[in-house]
Design goal:
By secondary structure, this protein is an alpha/beta fold. It folds into two domains: 203 residues, Alpha-beta prism (UDP-n-acetylglucosamine1-carboxyvinyl-transferase, Chain), CATH 3.65.10.10; 197 residues, UDP-n-acetylglucosamine1-carboxyvinyl-transferase, Chain, CATH 3.65.10.10. The chain is built from twelve helices and 24 strands. The strands form six sheets. Strands 22-23-1-24 form a four-stranded mixed β-sheet, with helices on one face. Strands 2-15-17-16 form a four-stranded mixed β-sheet. It has a four-stranded mixed β-sheet with strand order 4-5-3-14, with helices on one face. Helix 7 runs parallel beside helix 11. The longest helix has 14 residues. It is globular, with a radius of gyration of 21 Å. It binds shikimate-3-phosphate (S3P) and phosphoenolpyruvate. The site of shikimate-3-phosphate has 12 residues, from helix 5. Pfam families: EPSP_synthase (PF00275).
Length: 425
């Protein structure tokens, strides 16, 4: 699908989409619980739908009830010997240790960008927990055979926090007096989100300094009601759109959230945007934007909106944490450099730093998402201050995390056109 976004001032109000990070975790916790969980404000992006299907194949009953989703489970009791995690990195890394709680052989698959993302962690770690595991040279498909037996273990957290999220969630259902020790953990706030959600489902982990995670007496996940928070990762694009091209009010964003990407507020402030943060509403208005420095090592998904922001800031913005981007849906350091380069914005990658030369003028261009939702969204935001429209190829990539994105962008006043998009022009 091609989407064309035209330059222009924006002004409007919108409600943030549900967080896929929170939704996927809630689906996993509901599967691990006995009884009925009701998820309010459920996410329905492709990653969330994949999580629901995985939970269903692993034994849960899923029912859509008006605006909610009901998940009834009796723990992990697979109906099938294979699961498919779609394109979700979190999905596969979280559900693999959970599926390994069962004692049958299971094949774990995915598609698109997920087939090229590293999974060798599991081959190194799962056998230490009594799980047979093989991959195709560190990539999908994964073949596992549990049951996983928790014990004290040390893992490397430098590639991704998602493997730890999976182990924590699985340990939560069966562990007794066991400790996971992690070295060099990245994306720490995502682990805070995991621990917070586990606690909401009745499982408490004693963590120290994000290095050790201790499970004391055996605990059980408790089914209940859960409301999915608004998504800071998706909303970051709308907030940046407002900072560069007008004014927007975004509802259902919790400033007390554990989500890492609420850090977009710090970057906007550094860049000089005008902001009025409330408890659940953020208002951002265009200001005189200047280059800024920001460390995105622990919030890597902010790189694409930060680049769209930096392209509009006078001077050279320095964003740290580029090494975190190599194994996302695309190699995001490179794809940002390529696609923003087409729009006349120079980006240099220097070791772990990204330098964005902003304020030089954004040019209308024909860009490609590289099947990466966050690249498509970043280009759409950059289009708002370009000299001519920007056409985005393979723009349907947004469905992975934020199917409502173009509709929301239009709601805050942007001119968005597409033959295939079901939005009013
Ligand atoms: O746990 C999560 O929900 C996520 C963790 C992050 O991954 P890393 O831990 O690999 O940085 C992030 O990039 C991803 O989009 C979602
Ligand atoms: C990298 C992302 O997700 P995941 O790793 O879960 O596929 C993302 O949403 O940008």
């Amino acid at each position: 699908m091609q989407v064309i976004v035209s330059p222009g001032e924006i002004k409007g109000t919108v409600t943030a989409n549900p967080s896929k990070s929170a939704m996927q975790r809630a689906v996993a916790a509901a599967l691990l619980s006995k009884g009925k969980t009701v998820i309010h404000n459920p996410g329905l992006s492709n990653d969330c739908l994949a999580a629901l299907e995985v939970a269903e194949n692993l034994g849960a009953k899923i029912k859509r009830e008006a605006e909610d989703i009901e998940i009834t489970s009796n723990g992990v009791k697979p109906f099938y010997d294979s699961i498919n995690c779609g394109e979700s990195g979190l999905g596969i890394r979280m559900f693999t240790p959970i599926a390994a709680l069962a004692d049958i052989a299971i094949t774990i698959e995915g598609h698109g960008s997920l087939t090229t993302r590293p999974m060798d962690f599991f081959e190194a770690v799962l056998p230490q927990l009594g799980v047979e595991c093989s991959t195709r040279q560190g990539k999908l498909p994964l073949h596992i055979k549990g049951p996983l037996q928790p014990k004290n273990i040390t893992i490397d957290g430098s590639l991704s926090s998602q493997f730890l999220t999976g182990l924590l969630m699985a340990f939560g259902a069966v562990a007794e007096d066991a400790t996971i020790t992690v070295t060099d953990l990245k994306s720490k706030p995502y682990i805070a989100l995991t621990l917070q959600l586990m606690e909401q489902f009745g499982v408490k982990v004693e963590q120290h300094n994000f290095e050790t995670f201790h499970f004391g007496k055996k605990q059980t996940y408790r089914a209940g009601e859960y409301t999915v928070e608004g998504d800071w990762s998706g909303a970051a694009f709308l907030l940046v759109a407002a900072a560069v091209a007008g004014k927007a009010e975004v509802h259902h964003l919790n400033t007390q959230s554990a989500q890492s990407d609420k850090a977009i507020l710090e970057a906007l402030e550094k860049a000089g945007a005008h902001m009025l943060p409330g408890v659940f509403t953020i208002i951002v208005e265009k200001g005189k934007l200047e280059a800024f420095e920001f460390d995105a090592t622990d919030c890597p998904d902010l790189f694409p909106p930060l680049v769209a922001l930096a392209a509009n800031c006078k001077g050279t913005t320095k964003i740290k944490g580029v090494s975190r981007l190599a194994h996302k849906e695309s190699d995001r350091g490179i794809t940002l450099q390529q696609e923003f380069g087409k729009m006349g914005i120079r980006i240099d990658l220097q070791g772990d730093d990204m330098l964005v030369y902003g304020g030089t003028g954004i040019k209308g261009a024909h860009v490609h998402s590289h099947n990466d939702h966050r690249i498509a969204m970043a280009c759409a935001v950059a289009a708002l201050t370009a000299d001519k429209p920007v056409s985005i190829e393979n723009a349907e990539a947004i469905n992975k995390s934020y199917p409502e994105f173009f509709e929301h962008l239009q709601k805050i006043g942007a001119a968005v056109r597409s033959e295939e998009l079901k939005i009013k022009n």
